[in-house]
Amino acid sequence: MTLQELAPYLILIVAGFLPHEAWRWVGVVLAYGIDEDSEIIVWVRAIATAILAAVVAKILIFSPGALAGVPLWVRLSAAFIGMVAFFLVRQSVLAAVLAGTGALLLGSLLFTQH
Fold first, then answer.
1. pTM of the full predicted structure?
2. How many domains does the chain have?
3. CA distances (Å), origin 62, targets 4, 11, 65, 66, 99
């Protein structure tokens, strides 16, 4: 690959990854010794979980791009299959992602008009 072909990836690393990575390490250093069960940390965790759930719901229901072509019932079924896999495989996020993604791919291949 030439440097011109690698330029977008280099820009992503320099502009996207590196600045965020520095703040992540600052957070790790500052968070050392904080009690995970303190009220403020429990509250922050609850807010972060709620925001993530809202973003996932928005993407599922009001899908952008190519995902918009997949029927809503297929998207919701794939999410349900992922959640079931999460609980069946000892709360494994990897199992949930693989099962949900597999269900979404299979459903989109079978039920989407090409």
1. 0.69
2. 3
3. 36, 30, 10, 12, 22
